[in-house]
Design goal:
alpha/beta; single chain; 7 helices; 6 strands; Undecaprenyl pyrophosphate synthetase; binds farnesyl diphosphate; 231 residues; globular; six-stranded parallel beta sheet
Length: 231
């Protein structure tokens, strides 16, 4: 692997459903396989020295999926976070959530809040789950919070600039993603990190997320590094 390791990579983990279908499995079994891949990618991110890994786990659009699949996608984070907590502590991993936590079912919310609070002083790698996340939803919430703070005279219209908007985002305090990876063949941004992706390099692969691996992660980094040399 040549060149520098970026600070922040965000991954749109697409293709779980199709991966399952291709193997005669259910879509949920595809999501389970995706969660195993996610585990490996977190380990790989630690190894290569990434500082922030954002994972698009559930979008505000995903609520329209069949109820059984939605339920599975809400159970997975709770199971995953509860099981992996000792590992996060041991490896100095801090869990962050970007998204509307209040809109999650109570067991998911509880697991998320616990993982965030118990790992808050860790600082080797930040794993930021985009959960119940939508870029437009986020920007609407920013507008509402800014208006409310103006009304409460905490800020004035003149205070509004890029830096201030950053502090109202779910990702407040995190650097912007250097690279956004989308697996599964689609080449769209799909309401992901609309504000934060303004300068990100985009990298796409046809590989379904359960088959994504360290080799592809390093390939993405290397190809983006090459783009930068050409600039
Ligand atoms: C998109 O693939 C993927 C998702 C909607 C869910 C991604 C979730 C995980 C990988 C696991 C999350 C687990 C935790 C612990 C947060 P898709 O269903 O749209 O696949 P398709 O494009 O083939 O239909």
């Amino acid at each position: 692997m040549e060149g520098t390791i970026p600070t922040h990579i965000a991954i749109m983990m697409d293709g779980n459903g199709r991966w399952g279908k291709q193997r005669g499995l259910t879509r949920s079994q595809g999501h389970y396989a995706g969660s195993k891949t996610m585990e490996n990618i977190i380990k790989d991110s630690l190894e290569i020295g990434l500082k922030v890994l954002t994972l698009y786990a559930f979008s505000t659009e995903n609520w329209t999926r069949p109820p059984k699949e939605v339920q599975y996608l809400m159970d997975l984070p709770a199971k995953f976070l509860n099981t992996k907590l000792p590992d996060f502590m041991e490896n100095d991993i801090k869990i962050c959530i970007s998204g509307d936590i209040e809109g999650l079912p109570s067991h998911t919310k509880k697991a998320v809040k616990k993982a965030v609070s118990e790992t808050k002083n860790n600082n080797k790698l930040i794993v930021n789950f985009a959960l119940n996340y939508g870029g437009r939803h986020e920007l609407i919430s920013v507008v509402k919070k800014i208006l409310s703070d103006i009304q409460d005279t905490k800020i004035t219209i003149e205070n509004i600039d890029e830096q201030l908007v950053n502090t109202y985002l779910y990702t407040s305090g995190l650097p912007e993603p250097d690279i956004i990876i989308r697996t599964g063949g689609e080449q769209r941004i799909s309401n992901f990190l609309l504000w934060q992706s303004s300068k990100s390099e985009l990298w796409f692969t046809d590989t379904y997320f359960p088959d994504f691996n360290k080799k592809l992660l390093l390939q993405a980094i290397e190809e983006v590094n090459k783009r930068k040399i050409k600039e």
